[in-house]
TrEMBL record:
This is Diaminopimelate epimerase. One of its GO terms (molecular function) is diaminopimelate epimerase activity. Gene3D superfamilies: Diaminopimelate Epimerase, Chain A, domain 1. Pathway: Amino-acid biosynthesis; L-lysine biosynthesis via DAP pathway; DL-2,6-diaminopimelate from LL-2,6-diaminopimelate: step 1/1. It catalyses: (2S,6S)-2,6-diaminopimelate = meso-2,6-diaminopimelate. GO terms for biological process: lysine biosynthetic process via diaminopimelate. InterPro entries: DAP_epimerase_AS, DAP_epimerase_DapF.
Length: 280
C-alpha cells in the first residue's frame, strides 16, 4: 500500500489514496490505523486519512485516530488532503470540496508567486447548542459552566466544529493540566461521544495560546478544529475580537469567525514529509 506522510503544524497523518482501489474499501481501517500510527512499530502519526470517491463532492475521506476511532472532522488533516489532491492532479483546482462526516468542507489553496503558501478552510458554522455538541444537560449554550472532574471543578465552554470540543481557560498555559485533566474530561459522562479538550490562555484581544488533548489520540502539537473552537469560545466569552491568532505547540493558525455569514475560516500550512510503501 502506497502512502504519504504529511503534517499541519506537527499534527501528522498517514494519507492513503483509495480512489481507484475498490479492494481497499473493504479494508479494516480501524485496525490498520492502530498499526500505522504506532510510532515504534508502524509509520507513526496522530491519524490515518483514506481518500475515496464521492457522489457529493470532489472526494470523500475517512479519518481515523491513532486508537482506531473515527473522527468527524480534522482541521489540520483537511489542509493536508487539499494539498495532496491538488499537487497530484486528483483535484486540479485551488478549491476542493471534501465529503466528511461533518458535512462538505471546502479548503482553498493560497498561492503566492505561483507557490503554495497555505490553505484557507471554510470550516462551516459552529454548533453551540448543547444537544449539537453533544453534551448532556438542559437546552442552551454552554459558556463558562461548571464541570466537576473528580475533586475539582472547572468552568468550561463547549463548541462543536463538526466534532465536540470542551474549552478550559487558564491563567498560565505552562501550568495547564493537559495530561492529567485532559483524559478525564475527554471521557466525562457529560460527553456521550467523548470530547476534545483545549486549555486556553488569552494573551490579548487577538491572540491566545492553546494546548490540546485530542479525543482518541492524546496530546498533539496542533488541532485545527480545536483552534477554531478556541477562537469561537474566546469570542463568546468576550475575550477577543473576530480574528484570532491561535498559538499551538506546533505553530500558529489564523482563525476568523465571520460576522456576516456566521462561518469560521482557518488558515494555516500543510507539509509533505515523505512517501513510502507499507506491507498491508
Amino acid at each position: 500500500m502506497d502512502f504519504v506522510k504529511m503534517h499541519g503544524l506537527g499534527n501528522d497523518f498517514v494519507i492513503v489514496n483509495a480512489l481507484h482501489s475498490p479492494n481497499l474499501e473493504r479494508t479494516d481501517w480501524e485496525e490498520v490505523a492502530v498499526r500505522l500510527c504506532d510510532r515504534h512499530y508502524g509509520i507513526g502519526a496522530d491519524g490515518l486519512i483514506v481518500i475515496f470517491p464521492s457522489e457529493k463532492a470532489d472526494i470523500r475521506w475517512r479519518i481515523l485516530n491513532a486508537d482506531g476511532s473515527e473522527a468527524e472532522m480534522c482541521g489540520n488533516g483537511i489542509r493536508c488532503v487539499a494539498r495532496y489532491v491538488y499537487e497530484r492532479g486528483i483535484v486540479p483546482k485551488g478549491r476542493v470540496e471534501v465529503e466528511t462526516l461533518a458535512g462538505i468542507i471546502v479548503p482553498e489553496i493560497i498561492f503566492e508567486d505561483g507557490e503554495i503558501k497555505g490553505i484557507r478552510v471554510d470550516m462551516g458554522v459552529p454548533r453551540l447548542e448543547r444537544s449539537q455538541i453533544p453534551m448532556s444537560g438542559p437546552q442552551g449554550k454552554v459558556i463558562q459552566e461548571e464541570l466537576a472532574v473528580d475533586e475539582q471543578t472547572f468552568s468550561v465552554t463547549a463548541v462543536s466544529m463538526g466534532n465536540p470540543h470542551c474549552l478550559i481557560f487558564v491563567d498560565d498555559i505552562e501550568k495547564a493540566p493537559v495530561t492529567t485533566v485532559g483524559p478525564k474530561v475527554e471521557k466525562h459522562s457529560a460527553f456521550p461521544q467523548k470530547t476534545n479538550v483545549e486549555f486556553v490562555q488569552v494573551l490579548n484581544a487577538s491572540e491566545v495560546n492553546m494546548l490540546v488533548w485530542e479525543r482518541g489520540v492524546g496530546p498533539t502539537l496542533a488541532c485545527g478544529t480545536g483552534a477554531c473552537a478556541t477562537a469561537v469560545g474566546s469570542i463568546l466569552n468576550g475575550y477577543t475580537g473576530r480574528q484570532v491568532k491561535v498559538h499551538l505547540a506546533g505553530g500558529t493558525l489564523l482563525i476568523e469567525w465571520n460576522e456576516s455569514n456566521n462561518r469560521v475560516y482557518m488558515t494555516g500550512p500543510a507539509v509533505e514529509v515523505f512517501r513510502g510503501v507499507y506491507p498491508l
